[in-house]
Amino acid sequence: MHDESGRSVATATHAVVIAGGGPTGLMLAGELALARVDVAIVERRESQELAGSRAGGLHARTIEVLDQRGIADRFLSQGKVAQVAAFAQIPLDISDFPTRHNYGLALWQNRIERILADWASELSVPIYRGREVTGFAQDDTGVDVELEGGRSLRAKYLVGCDGGRSLVRKKAGIDFPGWDPSISHLIAEVAMAEEPPWGLRRDEKGIYALGKLEDGKRVRVVLREEHVGQGDEPTLHDLREALIALYGTDYGVHDATWISRFTDMVRQAASYRNRRVLLAGDAAHVHSPAGGQGLNIGVQDAVNLGWKLAQVVHGTSPESLLDTYHTERHPVGARALRNTMAATALSRGDERTEALRETMSELLRMDEPRKRYAAMMSGLDIHYDLGEGHPLLGRRMPDLDLVTESGPQRVFTLLHDARPVLLHLGEPGAFDITPWADRVRRIDARYTGVWELPVFGAVSAPTTVLIRPDGHVAWAGGGTDRGLRDALTTWFGPPSSSS
Ligand SMILES: Cc1cc2nc3c(=O)[nH]c(=O)nc-3n(C[C@H](O)[C@H](O)[C@H](O)COP(=O)(O)OP(=O)(O)OC[C@H]3O[C@@H](n4cnc5c(N)ncnc54)[C@H](O)[C@@H]3O)c2cc1C
Asked: Could you tell me the pLDDT band of residue 53, with boundaries at 50, 70 and 90?
């Protein structure tokens, strides 16, 4: 058995094996490869082709993290920029937010995956395609990953990016508490003999919609089911029945290229880590597609985990760094579970829920609530709790236009290689970080503009900022280096003794 580049799988070892090459697994593989970790993906699908369109786009923070790696343009050039943030279908405009990407991007998941797969391929990530992870056994030094057909891979760490039904999560014995579905929808791509009424409708049980696919002829159908449906493989007959129940006719539906079902089930892994096994993306959290958050949160999980896992693999940081992945990302997933539950409840069209939705709409038209909810749905407000300090601490670093010795430079450009950066905006040469110079890049620059964060507003200008590879601020100082050594050690390992 061989991977895509012809390497034999029977005996292969890797530092990290990722189960699942969906958006989360591909992003994580890219992050690890940038950090020079020997990483491989095992993917059940034979190719990156995806049945059906699934996720419809990217939110602002995801576009920012892709920009931090220098690949945002690949997505922007294929999609359609739009104001896509919404809560319970109530639109939330982010065009006044202080970010270069004050919008979202409409782009189907199959395109997103293909772009990510090309990036992973450029970074020489091997993908064992058409292979399924069937089990694993972990010991003190690594994990034996079993593949179907009796083959295995040896890795120091295994990451389950294998979707909502994650085998890795189940075999790791990680609980997946939450709530069973209260509603289900059929989703399909079909042809129709008659032109149907386009657009979204709402009845007392929820929403349903008919929309044109990209070719302008075929139809994307999303139909609320009368009762919670079971299983992934509904039939054309189920689709006809649901159309007749909701529209009184099936519009001559035929030629379905994809029929599936999604629900509002909400569940989250109790722990994102069991020793040498980690979970990311849908493997760690599932919820309804309301608000279009799943893929976005998965990609951002990957960006939070990648550099931490790389440092642990390289031995520059202790294993305990991996616990910060759960501490930081579990609350983000939990928040998405909660807001999708609320959105599903608000999607019903009975009079009382209608009144509640109108009340919520009124609220969200006010500036402060609009900003807060828009920042939540677009991911721009994520704040990891790194303790007391400057408001930037734990928040995303703004993409400032800097002036450096080598000319104008954007902050996000400094993060392209996924390495930490100490950005010093004061007197050049201050703050000696020689013991971390092998890991942390030091940049002296000038910046005279304002510092502004979404929702939070203007903040005082720091003199020096320590930026993690995921773009979050690990330390911000106003002229002294108090706390800098501790922050460098916490996030990037102890000082190197050779320097
Ligand atoms: C109708 C619908 C609309 C959605 N809309 C949006 C949206 O607008 N925005 C948004 O952000 N999200 C949306 N989502 C959610 C989004 O599709 C998921 O959150 C996203 O695909 C999760 O990515 P992932 O890589 O974590 O998991 P997946 O995409 O599920 O990828 C898992 C991968 O693992 C592989 N795999 C599984 N088991 C194994 C195994 N044992 N061995 C090897 N490989 C394995 C699978 O083949 C798959 O490629 C939507 C979902 C649905 C259903």
From this structure: confident
Rounded CA gap, 348 and 449, in Å?
46
d(CA 380, CA 391): 14
Burial of 366 (0-12, 13-18, 19+ CB in 10 A): exposed
Ligand 1 pocket: which of 268, 272, 295, 299 to mutate (most atoms within 8 A of CB): 295
Distance 57 CA to ligand 1 centre (A): 13
Using CA atoms, how far apart are residues 208 and 276, in angstroms rounded to an integer?
43
Run of H or E including 190: strand 184-192
pLDDT digits (tens, 9 = 90+) for 78-119: 999 999 999 999 999 999 999 999 999 999 999 999 999 999
Taking each helix axis as running N to C, give the angle between helix 351-365 and helix 367-378, from 0 to 180 degrees, rounded to the nearest 10. Answer: 100
Query: What are the C-alpha distances in Å from 259 to residues 75, 235, 309?
Result: 26, 7, 37
| Rounded Cα gap, residues 344 and 353, in angstroms | 11
User: Which tokens sit at 323?
Assistant: 């616990």
* Ligand 1, atom nearest to 164 Cα: 30
25 close to ligand 1 (CB < 6 Angstrom)? yes
